[in-house]
């Protein structure tokens, strides 16, 4: 019944992010308890400001406290498996990634595993005008490519058990991959340096091709022309250089 009511109510709302937010809050009344939990969360903040968001696929309900902390509540289960997995991935790649990863800890709301992150300062790519992104396309592409390469060529022993096949080795456009590179990073809109890469729950040892295809198609649709091509070119340069540096030299 709640699903039907939510669909009727959001039918007249044109903005997708707002539709998703209202739909989730109607279908999952416990989200109000989540908001209250965050508002009362013990920390050194006197005046509290709350904003709420819905994660991709409406899998998570996200509550932000004063641009200081981000709380991610699972909607479909207790969140234990995904929380523990992401914690291991973040702990591992925080030492490797050339781009900062928000610190994460797990807290509990009853039997619910809640992911609490430090707030990632910056602006999402999707919130930046296409003409501005295009003007800084090469600089942005080099950072994304360096990030993909650094993560992709490593094979950390700490998370080898998370691979589908432990014997698989990194290769060209193959290895550990964030999975959703099209906008899950924050930009400093003065320097256009990428300040953080966020949302690591879908990171896998996999082919980069499907994710890169989605990113490129989305960037093109949004007017970030040729960003995907630049990312692939810069990644290829890094990969070829890595092979060259590791090749045995002739005497």
Structural notes for this entry:
This protein starts with a helix and ends in a 5-residue tail after the last helix. The mean pLDDT is 91. The chain is globular. Helix 6 crosses helix 8. The strands form three sheets. A five-stranded antiparallel sheet has the order 1-2-3-5-4, with helices on both faces. The chain has a three-stranded antiparallel sheet with strand order 6-8-9, with helices on one face. With 251 residues, the chain is α+β, with helices and mostly antiparallel strands.
Class based on secondary structure composition and strand pairing: alpha+beta
Please provide the ordered H/E string of secondary-structure elements: HHHEEEHEEEHHEEEEHH
Q: DSSP strand (E) fraction?
A: 15-25%
Radius of gyration: 20 Å
Are there runs of 5+ residues with pLDDT below 50, and where? none
Number of strands: 10
Net shape: globular
Give the fraction of residues assigned to helices.
25-40%
Task: Give the mean pLDDT.
Answer: 91
Q: Which strand order does the major sheet show?
A: 1-2-3-5-4
The total count of helices amounts to 8
The major β-sheet equals: 5 strands, antiparallel
How far is the N terminus from the C terminus?
76 Å
Features:
251 residues; alpha+beta; 5-stranded antiparallel β-sheet; 8 helices; globular
Question: Can you lay out the helices and strands and say which pair or pack?
Answer:
Elements: H1 2-10, H2 16-27, H3 31-39, E1 50-54, E2 60-65, E3 69-74, H4 80-93, E4 104-109, E5 112-118, E6 123-124, H5 130-135, H6 137-153, E7 174-177, E8 185-187, E9 194-197, E10 204-207, H7 209-221, H8 227-246
Antiparallel strand pairs: 1-2, 2-3, 3-5, 4-5, 6-8, 7-10, 8-9
Helix pairs in contact: 1-2, 6-8, 7-8
